[in-house]
Design a protein that fits this description.
There is one protein chain. 31% of the residues lie in helices and 34% in strands. The chain contains 4 helices and 7 strands, in the order βααβββαβαββ. It has helices spanning 14-35, 47-52, 97-109, 123-131; strands at residues 5-9, 56-62, 65-75, 80-88, 114-119, 135-142, 147-154.
Length: 159
């Protein structure tokens, strides 16, 4: 019986970068529909963009296949991290994979401030981040389709 595991991924490996990109494209196509936009910048990313990204990638692996990915980038000089991407294959959503990836990301970063941005109409993502203590700390509109994004922040917890 296959077991889901979270592990760090090396996007410099072309095959792994292709797998990461495949999960991202499938999830972002679904998100673009949810948000009601035709032009969605994450869909313009290439495999090469994944390979050269200055992010750490962690994958949810099930039976040898990547079914979800979270990527983290350091907010240099601020002692904090940004979740650049958190995606799960559409057919594997609602299984807790996003929750496992987010927990792994928080565990990897330690007790520091974190940020993430998502579409204001992406209620599943907003609910997931709220479960982990993220609160809204800003909004802005981007693109010709006036896509509203919500910036969420998770403060360092007292020890």
């Amino acid at each position: 019986m296959p077991t889901l595991r979270i592990q760090q991924l090396d996007p410099r490996d072309r095959t792994i970068a292709e797998d990461i990109h495949g999960v991202q494209i499938a999830a972002y196509e679904q998100e673009a529909k949810l948000l009601g936009v035709r032009r969605f910048p994450p869909l313009e990313r290439t495999v090469e963009d994944v390979q050269v990204a200055s992010q750490r990638f962690f994958g949810a692996i099930d039976d040898g296949s990547i079914v979800g990915v979270v990527s983290l980038e350091s907010n240099e000089g601020f002692g904090s991290f940004n979740i650049a991407s958190l995606v799960v294959m559409p057919q594997r959503q609602r299984e807790g994979i996003g929750r496992l990836l987010l927990a792994a990301a928080l565990g990897e970063c330690g007790n520091v401030e974190m940020t993430v941005s998502t579409g204001a109409r992406n209620t599943p993502a907003l609910a997931l981040y709220a479960e982990f203590g993220f609160v809204e700390c800003g909004r802005h509109v981007v693109g010709s389709e006036q896509l509203e994004l919500v910036k969420l922040c998770r403060k360092r917890t007292s020890e």
